[in-house]
Amino acid sequence: MGAEPRECVPERPVRGRRVDWRQWAPLTLLTLAVLLGGGLWLAGLRGPAQLVWAAVTVVALVPATWATLRQLWRRQFGVDVIAVLALVGTLLVREYLAGAVIAVMVGTGQALEGYAQRRASRDLRALLERAPRQARRRTPAGGIEVVPLDRVSVGDRLLVGPGDVVPVDGTVEEAATLDESVVTGESQVVDRAAGEQVASGVVNAGAGFGLRATRNAAESTYAGIVRLAEEATARKAPTVRLADRYAAAFVPFTLALAGIAWLLSGQFLRAVAVLVVATPCPLLLATPIAIVSGLSRVARRGVLVREGGSLELLGRARTLLLDKTGTLTVGRPRAAETVVAPGGDRDDVLRLAASVEQLSPHVLAAALVRQARERGLRLAEPAEVTEEPGRGVTGRVEGRRVRVGQLAGEPPEWARRVRERAELAGLSTVWVSDDRGPLGAVLLEDPVRPDARRTVRRLREAGLRRLVMVTGDRPRTARQVAQLVGVDDVIAQCSPREKVDRVRAESGRAVTVMVGDGVNDAPALAEAHVGVAMGATGATASSEVADAVLTVDRLDRLADAVEIARYARRIAVQSATVGMGLAVVAMVAAAAGRLPPVAGAFLQEGIDVLVIVNALRALGGGLRGRDVPPETRDLLDRYAGEHAAVRDVLAQVRDTADLVATRPDAPECVPALREVHRRLTARVLPHAAGEERQLYPALAGPLGSDEATSTMSRGHVEITRLVDRIGGHLAAHADGRLRPDEVPDLLAALYGLDAVLRLHLAQEEEDFFSLGPARGDDGR
How many helices (H) and strands (E) does the chain have? Predict the structure, then answer.
């Protein structure tokens, strides 16, 4: 008797990787019988030997005939008919050894196919085996009850114990340490703070924590992944269709050649020899092995493809259409900058806005609250909160009436400049006001994914010839994103109907892939040859109609999937063509009487093993991504985490530059300059020095050479020069007001530093930091 299963973990243990000898029993018995016949033959007992070989042939013929008849009944015509005819022929001409060798050959192919499919689908089976079935739910009386998963409702408070699988999507009620590798493919554990969203299927790698359910079990992330995995394992492998296409020409050719050999020579033996060497294991087994292996590998990279036919099409794709929001961009607004009225305090404005927005469900409200918490601001509890849809939220914070949203009335001059700057930059503006007027504004952006540009380059290298961005956003913003990521064309202000029309037009010229994440993308995803949905919520319309779903919120996994699909398809086609080519040469020799059935059977056995082993190559290889050592990944994570502090200093640099530009004679200019210089020397320059000393040398291997980071080192030199330039002014300046002759050079240094540092951070995040979390495959 085993131990009781944990409440939130699978009731069935995940199987190990031990060899199940029952899967190899038929092949083992057939081989032993053939060897027994060989021993009897060598002992001079030729009659019993022939009888054993004939029995082996019949044993293989019966199931093969039944399978072929079932296919013909379903009006399916495939290459396996040749194997049946070859077995029948050997019995008719009494070439029992040849029949026995064919039987072993077919059994070997089936055993290898079973092994490859079991290995290839191991990750998909693991998803099904570890699905949670129960959950611990807190009761109103303060107790804990174990309930079936289908009884968990939205709003229930659950307890997730150490080692448990998170049963439903929810919000953590206290800090949690999670292993998200099954859902996202990331092998490192992650820390989630109270209030953060957690997907079902991840494993609690730390102490127990409370979870408030935000979705029921059927609509949660893991349920969606399991449904896709079940479909992926249940559907027919795509390469069977590829094999049937080859069979359309190969089977008639084989039968014609066998008939001609019999007709011209008058020897039925030659026709049987042709059928023996034509037995099509390369088509029956090698090509499905390659594609099923590809399905497994993309699943391990965080991409679930519904069926092999979609993987085959993905490997042939030439055109890619991408939605912008949530696909090329993060899809979640981020506070890019906080601008305040003259004499205002940036942290205080953000704190007031976030305090009011705590009770709002709006996506912009979540961005403000998240930004305030990241900066360590202590939020106050708001009172008298009211929300007017489309206009904003009003509430009382610490006795002050604060409004967050649109700006009411005629804006002052500084606010007009902020509005113009935001429009030019494609940013959204959230105004923060009190009874006296606007206090400041928070500029929000939907940042481009750090891995987007690198992914676009990899997609081009993988064979995609045309990349088009389709979006409903404004033309200016759409063009800015398109230039950043490097797509060929951009279509802005595109309605769902227009997206469908565009996909249909592109699909008429080449195999087309559409990538999107929203409900409005669902029609276009359904229209494309291959629709790919970002994120596996399992309940959105886009995931339901898509042919593939990215279960991790990383665009680079799409490039992985395309590269693996092309590689698997190339291996499948290679295995089929090489196997058939060798078989045709042997068939011609057999038709000419140069290859008797027994020798042909042994030769075909060698051909089959060759192409099947070649097909197993699809279990690895094909990825262009560079492998990054674990210690380098740790450095990338560390320095990427420091960018938030650098951006905080950068915002102060811009504010100080604006102050010097608009009010150079103000008494607060010099103190502001001294403070920003202090923060630059305390945070930014040590960050740059650490990257030069540790990170850049570590990246030389993964990036190919030391020269790969040389331009970034030049950026550090320029940043240091500009900081020193500001420091030089301050060292030669007594406290007081700025002199008019100092202002132009200070502005050049401040605005120059703002531009150089912003560009430098973006380049690091795109070229270096996007390498960091790319884990989950075998690395080959």
Answer: 29, 22
